Amino acid sequence: MSDVDGLVCAAPAKATRREWTGLAVIALPCAVYAMDLTVLNLALPAISAEARAERRAADDWSDR
Questions:
Q1: pLDDT at residue 24 in the model
Q2: 10, 1 contact by CB (below 8 A)
Q3: pLDDT tens per residue across span 15-58
Q4: Kind and range of the H or E element at 34?
Q5: pTM higher than 0.90 for the full model?
Q6: Between vectors from CA 47 to CA 64 and to CA 58, what angle results, nearest 5°?
Q7: Rounded Cα distance, 42 and 48, in Å
Q8: Residue 8 to residues 5, 12, 38, Cα–Cα distance (Å)
Q9: Phi/psi of residue 13, each to 5°?
Q10: C-alpha angle 4/7/11, rounded to 5°?
Q11: Inter-CA distances, 59 with 45, 46, 47, 50, 53, Å
Q12: What is the DSSP letter of 18?
């Protein structure tokens, strides 16, 4: 223990297995969500371009 400005500070306790499990339960879905957003942002321009091309092709076919 150390004395800082008259306050006694104990050394931080080590995390238990339950605390690490809780952190993993929270962190894993966050990581999956972040990866999902990254893939969506990378794929969205290609999906949008393909949809525009299909719409143009459908419009050309329906004009005949």
A1: 97
A2: yes
A3: 899 999 999 999 999 999 999 999 999 999 998 888 887 777 77
A4: helix 17-62
A5: no
A6: 5
A7: 11
A8: 8, 12, 46
A9: -75, 150
A10: 75
A11: 21, 20, 18, 14, 10
A12: H
Inform me whether the pLDDT recorded for 6 exceeds 90.
no
Element (H, E) at 56: helix 17-62
Detail the DSSP E strand segments found in 1-64.
2-4, 7-9
Q: Where are the domains of the chain?
A: 32-64
Q: Is 9 helix (H, G, I), strand (E, B) or coil?
A: strand
Rounded-to-integer distance, Cα 47 and Cα 27, Å: 29
- Which two structure tokens, joined as six digits, stand for 62? 């329906």
* Token representation of residue 2: 């150390």
